[in-house]
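> call design_seq(struct)
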């Protein structure tokens, strides 16, 4: 084996061990020998993806394909990257090229189905899945799983359940299928079936690490904290080096305010997986709850090195600085300058913005199909639409997208330039949407305090509001509020800011701002359309 082959083997081993920085280093060293090697460029791109650098990943994949256009792994990865980040036209170009190169294989058609689904086009996705199936000599779990997801989009819930149940019967450790099935039961019922697929799979594979983790994670998301602690404790008694269970146990303990025990669990997870940013963040927040802000700040600085643009890290860092009375917190949480209320301008063929919002509310109402709040979101006593709202092709949604884009460009244009500020340093001439959805709250409905971890700028448009939401209401019912973390920091009074919503107006703010809503009481609907925005 040559030295170059040994280096490449080391790079692949580092990547598989989730040592992405080391894999990147090995690949860059290898590129000195051959700057066009497609396999090296591909591993480098994957390593950069895992380090939250999608643009750099895409550039390396494009270099690989420029010199080796038949390198299928690079093209598939680039397609998935484009789909994930909303570059649908570019994804489609590469899918067509892949179909030309591999006309008799199912994967190009599977990718086409994934693209159509991401674009909110389930009928076209179904046609692409049919073409994928035509290329198969035997059933494919990947194709069946995506078919189940498309059936879900088309509200064919019995078909969805049937396909997913068959998948987990044939492949008990098919975790994505379990996740989709239990999401179906949670949101559409019957509730008594929630987690039954995982329980049945564990009877067949009682030592499965993946199934045990999925069970504990679902218990945590569903608020069954005692069950989660019990599951994790049982696993760790036999396998004390399974870091993810220490972390889940810490998360459940923290929900019960058992802070010292939670910190011990998080610390064990970090010792086992020192480069996992989630462990760093959760240790930091637990230390903050104990009033140990200097120590928390050190963990956040370490997390910042792993993910410089993590909005969670910036949010908690600002809280630490505020608790330590560091003036830098005013620079980060500058509510008066960074929270802006911008009126949207409806097209000229609408009598008014209110008229446009009324029609938009009717369209959005049809997209709220679930019966219960999402399993893993901040919504309480309400529902949230599934998928990217702006990927859907209804004319009114595309018009709305353009209205938000115009307002977003106005918001970014008025921001000052500052190369050392986490918000302002990313300012560019253009913007792109990385997510959009709608939330419908009824009586007592609210958003728990949260940030948008992978965003840059977030905004919320008010489509429909109950009559109780008033500017002169001292209780701020239905208002959006900023600055409350929900951590109950000892001896710290959090600096807060609130805005009264208005129909047809959009509130823009940095994605790292903690925000939530004040519940309202009585009849009425509070319908919004939030979205996340990244630099172009």
């Amino acid at each position: 084996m040559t030295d170059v082959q040994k280096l490449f083997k080391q790079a692949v081993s580092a990547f598989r061990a989730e040592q992405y920085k080391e894999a990147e280093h090995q690949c860059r060293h290898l590129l000195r020998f051959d700057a066009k090697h497609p396999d090296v460029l591909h591993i480098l791109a994957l390593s950069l993806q895992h380090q939250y650098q999608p643009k750099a990943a895409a550039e390396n994949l494009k270099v690989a394909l420029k010199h080796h256009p038949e390198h299928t792994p690079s093209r598939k990865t680039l397609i998935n990257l484009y789909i994930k980040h909303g570059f649908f036209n570019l994804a489609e170009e590469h899918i067509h090229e892949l179909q030309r190169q591999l006309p008799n294989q199912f994967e190009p058609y599977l990718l086409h189905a994934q693209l159509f689904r991401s674009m909110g086009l389930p009928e076209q996705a179904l046609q692409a899945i049919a073409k994928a199936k035509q290329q198969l000599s035997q059933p494919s779990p990947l194709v069946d799983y995506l078919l189940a997801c498309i059936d879900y989009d088309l509200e064919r819930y019995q078909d969805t359940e049937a396909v997913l149940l068959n998948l987990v019967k044939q492949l008990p450790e098919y975790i994505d299928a379990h996740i989709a099935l239990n999401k179906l039961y949670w949101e559409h019922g019957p509730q008594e079936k929630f987690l039954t697929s995982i329980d049945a799979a564990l009877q067949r594979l009682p030592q499965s690490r993946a199934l045990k983790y999925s069970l504990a994670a679902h218990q945590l998301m569903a608020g069954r904290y005692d069950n989660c602690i019990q599951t994790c404790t049982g696993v760790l008694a036999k396998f004390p080096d399974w870091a993810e269970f220490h972390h889940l146990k810490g998360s459940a303990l923290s929900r019960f305010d058992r802070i010292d025990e939670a910190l011990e669990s998080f610390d064990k997870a970090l010792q086992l997986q020192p480069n996992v940013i989630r462990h760093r963040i959760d240790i930091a927040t637990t230390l903050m709850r104990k009033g140990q802000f200097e120590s928390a700040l050190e963990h956040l600085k370490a997390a910042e090195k792993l993910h410089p643009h993590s909005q969670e890290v910036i949010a908690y860092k600002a809280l630490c600085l505020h608790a330590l009375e560091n003036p830098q917190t005013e620079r980060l949480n500058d509510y008066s300058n960074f929270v802006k209320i911008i009126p949207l301008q409806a097209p000229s063929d609408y009598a008014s913005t209110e008229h446009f919002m009324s029609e938009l509310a009717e369209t959005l109402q049809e997209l709220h199909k679930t019966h219960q709040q999402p399993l893993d979101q901040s919504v309480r006593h309400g529902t949230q639409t599934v998928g990217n709202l702006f990927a859907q092709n209804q004319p009114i949604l595309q018009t709305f997208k353009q209205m938000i884009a115009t307002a977003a460009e106005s918001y970014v244009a008025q921001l000052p330039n500052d190369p050392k500020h986490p918000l302002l340093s990313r300012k560019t001439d253009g913007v792109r949407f990385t997510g959009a959805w709608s939330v419908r709250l009824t009586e007592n409905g609210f958003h728990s305090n949260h940030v948008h971890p992978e965003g840059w700028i977030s905004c919320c448009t008010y489509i429909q509001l109950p009559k109780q939401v008033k500017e002169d209401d001292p209780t701020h019912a239905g208002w959006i509020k900023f600055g409350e973390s929900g951590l109950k920091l000892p001896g710290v009074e959090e600096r807060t800011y609130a805005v009264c919503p208005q129909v047809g107006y959009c509130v823009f703010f940095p994605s790292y701002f903690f925000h939530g809503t004040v519940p309202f009481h009585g009849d009425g609907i509070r319908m919004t359309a939030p979205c996340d925005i990244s630099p172009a």
